[in-house]
Design a protein that fits this description.
The protein folds into two domains: 120 residues, Dihydroxyacetone kinase, domain 1 (Rossmann fold), CATH 3.40.50.10440; 64 residues, Hypothetical Protein Tm841, Chain: A,domain 3. It has nine helices and ten strands. The mean pLDDT is 91.
Length: 230
């Protein structure tokens, strides 16, 4: 059993069962639907089917990051057990949560000077962050130290490629990433933007492609282009 905790944000979008199987701890973000707030606790507070049905029915949604006090409470649970912590945050290009985590780290470091508390900006999100966490869990299980994992994460985070698309611009409009006019016209023309996460961890629209079939082919080509060893 390792002497440190491998941790990330719930936005790695792994299942609760997968987190438990790989012994990866997670701190919950929050989401709000029609004015009611819930923890992003992987389907416990709200079933995923209910969540997506509400969105499809037009519910107003938004998310909020983990604040400093929540990070302090979360980290301190492990520090009291004498554990060091390696925590990877959702990309700073998408959320400010890494700043909250670093403030909490600095506050706790004074109280627990003998413990290592490493907070890393993953520059990743969703399945990309989940894939990265699995890689780190593999290294931990092979006996690598927390410092070796920290070094690997910092040196290799830009090798995680995120390429994805949407076939409906409605939620990009609601999130303010696309204007209402552009969203309306884009949906009429069946535009499916191909997006990725750049080296600053920000979501960037790379191509505007018509029809789902064509954008799927484009995503596959990106995978072939960037995948390690083809």
């Amino acid at each position: 059993m390792s002497d440190f905790i491998l941790s990330c944000c719930s936005t790695a979008d792994l299942s609760k069962e997968h987190f438990q199987k790989r012994d990866i701890r997670y701190v919950c973000f929050h989401f709000e639907i029609d004015g009611v707030s819930y923890p992003d606790d992987l389907g416990e507070s709200m079933d995923f089917h209910e969540f997506y049905k509400k969105m499809a029915d037009g519910a107003m949604t938004k998310t909020s990051q983990v604040n400093v006090d929540e990070y302090v409470t979360y980290f301190e649970e492990f520090l009291k057990e004498g554990k060091d912590i390696l925590h990877l945050c959702l990309s700073s290009g998408i959320s400010g949560t890494v700043n909250s985590a670093m403030i909490a780290r600095d506050d706790l470091q004074e109280k627990y000077p003998d413990r290592k508390i490493y907070v890393i900006d993953s520059l990743a999100a969703s399945a990309g962050l989940g894939l990265f966490m699995d890689m780190l869990a593999d290294m931990r299980d092979e006996g690598k130290s927390i410092d070796e994992l920290k070094e690997f994460a910092e040196e290799n985070r830009l090798f995680i490629h995120h390429w994805f698309f949407t076939t409906n611009l409605t939620y990009l409009v609601r999130g303010g990433r696309v204007t209402k006019t552009a969203g309306f016209v884009g949906n009429l023309l069946n535009i499916c933007p191909l997006l990725n996460v750049n080296d600053e961890g920000k979501l960037i629209a790379r191509e505007k492609i018509r029809t789902p079939k064509k954008v799927i082919r484009a995503a596959v080509e990106k995978m072939k282009e960037h995948a390690l060893n083809g």
